[in-house]
Amino acid sequence: MNQLLKLNQQIQLETSNIACEIERFLGSGGQGEVYESNMGGKPVALKWYFPQQATPEQKAALEMLIKKGAPNEKFLWPIGLTFSKEIKGFGYIMPLRESCYKSIVDLMKGRIEPSFHALAMAGIELSHSFLQLHAKGLSYRDISFGNVFFNPDTGEIRICDNDNVAIDGEASAGILGTPRFMAPEVVRGEAKPSTQTDLFSLAVLLFYILMIHHPLEGKREAEIRCFDLPAMNKLYGTEPVFIFDPNNDSNRPLLGCHDNAMTYWHIYPQFLREVFTKSFTDGIRDPQNGRVRESEWRAVMDRLRDSILYCGNCGNENFYDIDLLNKSGRLNPCWSCQKVIRTPPRLRIEKHIIMLNHDTQLFPHHIDPQNLYDFSKPVAAVNQHPKDPNIWGLRNLSDEKWVITLADGSIKDVEPGQNLTLAKGTEISFGKVKGEIRL
Amino acid sequence: MTATSVRGASHIRSGLPNQDDMKWYPPRFSSGLPIIMAISDGHGSQKSFRSQSGAYFAVHVAVEVIKEFIESQADVSNFTRVKRIAEEQLPKEFVRRWKAKVLSDIEARPFSAEDSKLLKGKDSVVAYGATLLAVLVTSEFIMYWQIGDGDILTLLEHGEIERPIPKDERLFANETTSLCAKDAWRDFRFCFQPILDSPPKLILSATDGYANSFGNDENFLKVASDIWEIIQTEGFNFVRRNLQDWLKEASESGSGDDITVGIIYSTER
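Predict the joint structure of the above. Result:
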């Protein structure tokens, strides 16, 4: 039920003569209503504030955000202020979220089931985007799963509700949302939301996306009324305990209540578990030095993505856990069918190990240090020999020639469009970096 | 506010009890806010042989949880927070308390060997399977929660009729999301409506036996405006006195199922 604007109503853009026509009511939030509208033939989203939320402070914040511009295209950032002669208050327009982007609530509710690959991509994009936001001197202040959307097929993300973004350190003390995604020191009222507290919320969000569960909700959560604010403050503020804290088992997940956490935690490789453990132990005790930075998250999510391998029996995604391999000499059996997993050929580029699965693609990100996190166009792809299905190759999809050194020392060129055979010990010079095939 | 539940015509013929239930707050039908209204439809299939109790627990838990929730919110003007808690946290609490009641009921009245056979190896809470539709009206906002089938209709200022909670596309061919399902809290649907100038004139919630008694959705939607018109001409007490007969008639000539309807109407002009 929309109450603020009417369909077909004309709303003016503040800085130009262009009018927006209201076409469709999209939804109601805590601050206002969002409509799909038509701005000179272009579909955009328009948010209009409830009267009590249409404050001069909000307007000033929007003006600042519009002037600063979006950190990157993942943010559905305010483009222009809007007003109307007939209705008091104001609103703003922003890019429209395409329907392929689903809410994390859909993930939580099991309405979408993205692959681990898509989830890891979402993790890379999220940490990368927050790094860019923070680099502009801004803090998001209200990271939660209502604000992040992603494409379950690709992991591409869109970040909404950017009107609460503020210049770091200048944010008013206004507490937004629920305590569940806030840093404990914010819940306790000791700190204002900042880039530092965003890091904690980002860790909670990443944990949520990957485990489909909250990192602090274990036995203690099951013992309280979960909407009781004083009890929530204890859980998320004064006595937060990570459900997998290695030194404190008082808040372990309970069977029947927190099954997702219990299942997923053990599927992921040790390096990921270690970073989450650091985030929710040191990161709680020492907000200044104990938190995992956006760039670290990005590297971890990248490593997670490249660690994915498939079970040869059931086809489900599993992870290459090198720490486990070094310790016990083998990987865990497939989490789904319990059969032994055979590792595919791997490509080692410096310290980074990439699984060469039947569908693996390499991007500029992998082979060009000047283009890290560029996943726009593949530069290499694994493929099968057309005549002998036992032979696998890596096709050069880039515009550059590669030079390979085979195990016997012979040297060959791999021109764009050509293949090299995945054989043990083959070294590939991609131009800026070198890689080595391992079987 | 008023609510009525009638035993379905086919239930009467086959000797089945009314497996719907309802509860509201404040306990006596009165005016004033907040108002909480909950209705539930016990599945009534063979394996859900205690769904009458399941529906009873559902409406009691819903009213209890919503009442505690709204009384514990010191600052309801923070819509963002109140909405998030209501949407993310309350469904968990509904399910948790409903399950606790079900488990203690099973302890007090253990299943017979025949009962267990009916379950066909399914989880014992399935015996209590039920839906839940709940509405909270305060002076600042309205909230709606729903799991399983059933309908909530609102009649707006200019006579438009809307479903605040869109139909769940996963509900088809008598398959329904239910309080008894694994991770049932995930299946709750929710809607938050702040009250600005013109709150809905009428909110009608009904178990699916009602909509199923109409030939098509259009005719069913018209019920909300028909009832509103009757309130205007004959007064609300007339609706209150006659609602049961109307529902009986609908069940007899329509679905044959139990029907429960709750009506909240705005006295503001």
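Chain A touches chain B at residues 1, 3-4, 28-31, 50-52, 108-110, 144, 146, 175-178, 180, 222, 225-229, 257, 259 (CB under 8 Å).
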